[in-house]
Task: structure prediction
Amino acid sequence: MTISNRPFGALADGTPVSCWTLTSETGLVAEVLDYGVTIRSVVVPDKNGRPTDVVLGYDTVEEYVAQDAYLGATVGRFANRIREGRFQLNGESYCLCINNGPNHLHGGLRGFDRYVWQSRQEEAGVVFTRLSPDGEEGYPGNLQLQVTIGWIGNALTITYDAQTDRDTILNLTNHSYFNLNGAGSGRIEGHSLQLNADRYTVCDENCTPTGELAPVEGTAMDFRSPKPIGRDVERDEPCVRPYLGYDSNFVLSGHPVAVAVGDVSGITLVADTDQPGVQLYTANYLTDRPGKQGQRYGFRSGFCLETQHFPDAINHPQWPSCILRPGERFHSTTSYAFF
Ligand code: BGC
Result:
């Protein structure tokens, strides 16, 4: 792997932003900003050998600051939703901001995606660090974070590490929008997708879990065999209709967790994680906008595979725990491999 770094403008307050370029031994190239530990581009060859950028992104830091859609960003302290922004921990009640309907979403008004992280080059890739202070966005505990991004063969590998000095909750993800036919090439319904998930977390109309884990069988959520993302997306079912498409968490049951193929490019993405869930989000709320190099993005022009704890896990004690305690070390890996 070769790694280099270049300036990428500055925030309004003058804080410089930089862009890391990571080239795999197999010639795949990813760019990652220290602003929000944001994956800006991933360039891989298509079936004809033509270099194809498969993630949505922007050319300037100003556009990253202005965006509302978390393109490529690292999301935390708690990715996805917390019902009404409320939870209890050790008998104490916590109240977070409401920024998505009646709920708390993606860490709040200024989540991890909105900070310039410290970064340095190491053997495994680029290491991004940040201290999220006690009380930030209402979350308890000083949280020391480390996100390492590097190539292992053809797999862009993201490793999350965290430690806290007070009990806290944690759910970290990457919010890349993939379009394996090429960013800006149009909608993604023609992509084939397979997900290793027998069940999903049923949600209410505000996309918040009811607590039920339902079988995917017989529903639009059944991706156990590869099928085009668009095949069932318009079905009149409560798992897709209220969200204008896929925006749900799958309960993962095996590895790799997901395989997607661009129907035009032939590019295959194999996603894997040690997390218990993955949110398939088909950019149903992505409004029309300019992207990198004159590209245009909009409704369903990408899909996210957000590896995660189940949404609102803190309010469902029967689910895998999202609590991190002092003395413990959170360590988790997600990889996106391209062929
Ligand atoms: C959520 C969507 C939301 C999007 C923000 C996804 O993780 O599930 O509902 O609109 O992030 O861009």
Observations:
- The chain is about 0% helix and 45% strand.
